[in-house]
Each structure stands twice: as C-alpha cells, then as structure tokens.
Amino acid sequence: MKADIVTFDNKKQGSVELADTVFGLPERADILARVVNWQLAKRRAGTHSTKSTGEVMGSTAKIYRQKGTGRARHGSRKTNIFRGGAVGHGPVPHSHAYKLPKKVRVLGLKTALSVKQAEGKLIVVESGKLASPKTKDFVKQLGDMGVSSALIIDGSDLDDNLCMAAANIPGIDVVPSMGANVYDIMRRDTLVLTKDAVEALQARLS
C-alpha cells in the first residue's frame, strides 16, 4: 500500500510504499492488550513494603510469663496482632516483570502500526529535522497538520531542534525508531513517522 509523504509545513512530497506485512495486519485487541500489560508491568517500581516481625523495632523479651495469668500465651509485642506490630503477609519489594514471547511482542508492534494506518491516523513526513527549536513555530506546524496528540518516530538519530521544540508540548512525544513501542503508539491519537523511521521499522519487523 502507498502513503503520502508530507513535510511539517503540510506540503506533499511524494509517496512511500508501506509493507502489508507491517502496516496491513488486522486489528487484534487481545494482542495489543497483552503487550501493553507486559510493558506496564515492567515499568512498575515494585517498592511497596511492610515490616515483618523481625524488622519491627522493640524488645525481644517475653511480655509476661507463660502460665498462671489466664491470658493467651504471647512471646512478643512485635507480632501482627498487636498495635504497632508487624503486618501479616504484607507486600515486599519485588519485580512485576514477566516474560512475553518475542513473536507476540513483534506481532503487537505490527498490529499497533496497522491500526493507526487503518484508522487514517498515520502520517509520514519527509524528514524529522526542523529549521528552528522554537516550540511556538512547531505548535503552529502541528496545528496546520491537524495534530494535537501524537507520537513522532524518527530514524536512529533524533534532530536536536525537534526534541527541543516538542519537549514542552503536552501530548507530543518524540522517540527514535528503536524506541517504538505499542503503549506509546496507542496512547497518542496520531502516529507520525519519518521516511527513515518507516524504513527502519520495516527492516526491523519484516
């Protein structure tokens, strides 16, 4: 399939061939959900923690004698049944990451690209280079293109002017082709690819 190539000034600059094996797959909500959940699980800090009996500060002496008091047989004030004591079976720091087959990850990225193409929300630009790092100028260019929420994917190297101009614009993200991922693609309304990004993604996923 073919897609028009435009500039950031919204002027047509020809067309590019998009591989059906990368940009023409059917929508698979189940695959997208699996990949997004995997990505979000990986980024969880996992730092939630509670103290066990051995970690609570306090005396280790037996609080009262074993027999003769008519009360239960307690040995420590630090257990979870006393106020100020430990938490029984509470969370401990750990990683939430898990493995996802590479074929599923690749299929998820292809599906995300295909969904944007099918919805008409894929824009291919000639180059990711800007003449100026001014955010005001870039906002106007995006407005002329009808873009307010977008992920911009360039080739292996990002243009400094593009990064600086987009840094302060809410809803606009810029990543290199190797940073392309399902979560970032799906969380923004429009996907903007440079010619270099299209070539890099097709080489990576074909």
Could you explain how this protein is built, in words?
The chain is of the alpha/beta class and 206 residues long. It has two domains: 2-43 and 98-205, 3-Layer(aba) Sandwich (Ribosomal Protein L4, Chain: A); 45-95, no CATH class. The chain has helices at 20-23, 29-43, 102-118, 135-145, 160-166, 182-187, 195-205, and strands at 2-6, 12-17, 122-125, 150-154, 172-176, 190-194. A six-stranded mixed sheet has the order 2-1-3-6-4-5. Helix 2 (29-43) crosses helix 3 (102-118) and helix 4 crosses helix 5. It is elongated, with a radius of gyration of 27 Å.
Keyphrases for this structure?
206 residues; alpha/beta; Ribosomal Protein L4, Chain: A; six-stranded mixed beta sheet; 7 helices; 6 strands; elongated
Helix-strand layout with pairing:
Layout: E1 2-6, E2 12-17, H1 20-23, H2 29-43, H3 102-118, E3 122-125, H4 135-145, E4 150-154, H5 160-166, E5 172-176, H6 182-187, E6 190-194, H7 195-205
Parallel strand pairs: 1-3, 3-6, 4-5, 4-6
Antiparallel strand pairs: 1-2
Helix pairs in contact: 2-3, 4-5
Spatial shape: elongated
Read across the widest sheet, the strand sequence of neighbours is 2-1-3-6-4-5
The CATH class name of the largest domain reads Alpha Beta
Structural class: alpha/beta
Sheet with most strands: 6 strands, mixed
Please write the string of helix (H) and strand (E) elements.
EEHHHEHEHEHEH
Report the strand count: 6
Strand proportion, as a percent range, falls in 5-15%
Euclidean distance between termini CA atoms: 15 Å
